[in-house]
Specification:
- The protein has about 180 residues and is an alpha+beta fold.
- The protein folds into two domains: about 35 residues, GTP cyclohydrolase I, N-terminal domain (GTP Cyclohydrolase I, Chain A, domain 1, Orthogonal Bundle), CATH 1.10.286; about 130 residues, GTP Cyclohydrolase I, domain 2 (2-Layer Sandwich).
- The protein has eight helices and seven strands, in the order H-H-H-E-E-E-E-H-E-H-E-H-E-H-H.
- The strands form two sheets. A five-stranded mixed sheet has the order 5-2-3-6-7, with helices on both faces. It has a two-stranded antiparallel ribbon with strand order 1-4.
- Strand 2 and strand 3 form a beta hairpin.
- The longest helix is centred in the last third of the chain and has 16 residues.
């Protein structure tokens, strides 16, 4: 039994459960495997995720990828938050392969995290890897730590944004991005 499995077994016991009952026999093993997957973002790097998928381009107009689904675990309660990420950037001689945006989101989402920091990490990663003139990231999520416990507000939604470069300095650029993602 791995240490993580052992700890899940101990948690179940502390909750008053019988880890020998049929329904829980393999739960510590499954929970440990699930947690390793849900936090697999610690194992990757930006370079591995992008895997060289940066291509020369003379396009200098805004590129927007929206509705990238994600889930993460809040670092305060280890409960899920689930939502969508919208990314826009202004290329500067290079464009990033489309699927790499989703992989970058997952790299940071699959860590114990807060949404505010994750939004910034994604924006900085896109800027670093592409050398773009500017990037905007907007994330919208529902947080189970607010919905399942505490104030128990089922319809609450958190929205965060980070604007870098031209997206921060130019109101028309920011407005175009917001309009394209429907905000």
């Amino acid at each position: 039994m791995s240490e993580l499995q052992h700890l899940y077994s101990k948690i179940l016991t502390e909750l008053g459960e019988d880890v020998e009952r049929e329904g829980l026999l393999d739960t510590p093993k499954r929970a440990a495997k699930a947690m390793k997957f849900l936090t697999s973002g610690y194992e990757g790097s930006l370079e591995e995720v992008v895997n060289g998928a940066i291509f020369s381009s003379d396009n200098d107009e805004m590129v927007v990828v929206q509705g990238i689904e994600f889930y993460s675990l809040c670092e305060h309660h280890m409960l899920p938050f689930i939502g969508r990420c919208h990314i826009g950037y202004l290329p500067n001689g290079k464009v990033l392969g489309l699927s790499k945006f989703a992989r970058i989101v997952d790299l940071f989402a699959r860590r114990l995290q807060i949404q505010e920091n994750m939004t910034k990490q994604i924006a900085e990663a896109v800027q670093e890897i592409t050398g773009c003139r500017g990037v905007g990231v907007i994330m919208e999520a529902q947080h189970m730590c607010m919905m399942m416990r505490g104030v128990q507000k089922q319809n609450s939604m958190m929205r965060t944004s980070v604007m870098l470069g031209d997206f921060r300095e130019s109101q028309p650029t920011r407005s175009e991005f917001m309009r394209l993602v429907g905000l």
